[in-house]
Here is the input.
Amino acid sequence: MIVRLILWACGIIIIPLMFWQLNNETKFKKNIALGVTLPYVGRTHPQTVELLNRFRRILRWICLGLLVSVVVLVLLPMSTGLSLTVWLIWIDVAMVLPFIPYVKYHKKLKALKQEQGWYPEVPRTHVVNLTAAAQAEKPISPVQFLLPLVVSLAPLVWGIVQQDWLMTALFLTGPVCVLLFWALYQWAMRRRAETVDENESLTQTLTRIRRRAWRRSWVWGSWFMAGVNLAMWLSLSHPVWGLVVMLALTVLFLVLAVGLEFHLRHQQERLTAQSGQTYYVDEDEKWIWGMFYYDPNDTHLVVNNRIGMNTTVNLAKKSGRVIMGATAVLMLLMPLFGVWLMAEERAPVTLTLTDTALVAEHGWDHYEIPLADVDQVQLLQEEPEGLRRIAGTAMDNVYKGRYQSDEYDKITVCMDPQEGPWLLITMDDGTVYLVGDGAEDMAGLYEQLK
Amino acid sequence: MLLQLDFNSERPIYQQIRDQIVVGIAQGVLSPGEKLPTVRALADEAGVNMMTVSKAYQLLKQEGYITTDRRSGTVVSAREGAQTVPEQTVGRLKLAVSELRVAGWQKEQVLELCQKLYEQEG
Here is the structure.
């Protein structure tokens, strides 16, 4: 039940995030609302206001419905695997459902724009800001990424010194992510100016605040990954504190990232409140449903979203379609992970004694303990004190992978935790195994091994 | 200064960039000594190939509208007094005058139009 509650607590965050983001799309920023560019006069038109209000109402109902569905799904009795499958399906639904009215009202607003002839006087062309392009941009100092990189390397060095290769591999994720963020910051950074109208100082301000938000998000992301690496390190000696620090870092990063996005949106709204009175930029034709970019004339793969600080891909490019398609497929296939977990849940742990080895199996995992190298065998009626997972699976019916206890730093586990007793096997080289399949003749097996 | 590129036009993009920069200089939006973006920065801003921008800049350089050096990059040339105009310009003007003549325009009407356009661009 606790695992389910944690899952749903993580999932439920999507609802306010989706609500805030889509509700915010109804406020005009850079002359755009619901992905449609309108002149100043069109913004306060009664039909525009009515359409935006109707969308807001429907969005509220959808988010409320999703919230109620969470309460119902939490209360339904389910196994961990089924619960995860339902949760992942719910995540998919929660991320797609609010966009259905968005697209509907985007189309309605576009139809109104056509009906009213709200198009700029200048024929539809691609606007290029020569002045903004001529202004040299001060690149971010590499030190901003080097510092979190150094911090994230500390646990990795410890892992190498300890010759603990599993933990070394785990601690490698931190520095790799920092380097990836550094690369992504530079690769995905689009220098195109935020031109809304002919006001050069407005363009400069909008471009500057967007680039600043972009820089901050990647630097904060790097510090977050460095912090997570340290928290993982801490969890080896203080598991509860490690978890608390990790949770605190996640909440902090989430709050900062969402705050940054909304702060930028608020500034874009405020700065362009009076725009669109004479000349203004209208690039609606390049945006399918106001959210998917398609411009065969643009050589860029990654382009800035018109609102906020995010980027998207150009669907006119083959690589853009591949990235978008792969993301969609990945999202749709997410529930299959839950199905795999359900199969894992149903698979029993089996112990087989052969002439040369004791073999513990669960699902695809196979642990072979050579009898010739066994030093000592103990029959445990209780789990070792402070048994906790380091890397592997911990479900109601199976513990497997790398574990740790108060007494042992490293234990390779493959056991059914519901049914004891279990065998604690120490090998000649100091390796410790904890196995048990819940069978009644465990004592007999213990005698044979002894 | 904003450039308006029309990708559906028969006129090549490099030519459109060149034309609009010339108009910008004529209108005083781009003043002598003013720095233009690098080829890369303008290509990035316009979402076009660097070759396209490079071609436009080469044309402008050949015609004497811009100069390029290592220290200051690409800048608008200082042009004092009447300059010799490229043959292409004379050719285009010749064609335009011929078209107006075929359309039945009198000399005074053509001159009046020229004067109006000259004042507009100034």
About this structure: Chain B is about 55% helix and 10% strand. Chain B touches chain A through 22 residues (CB under 8 Å).
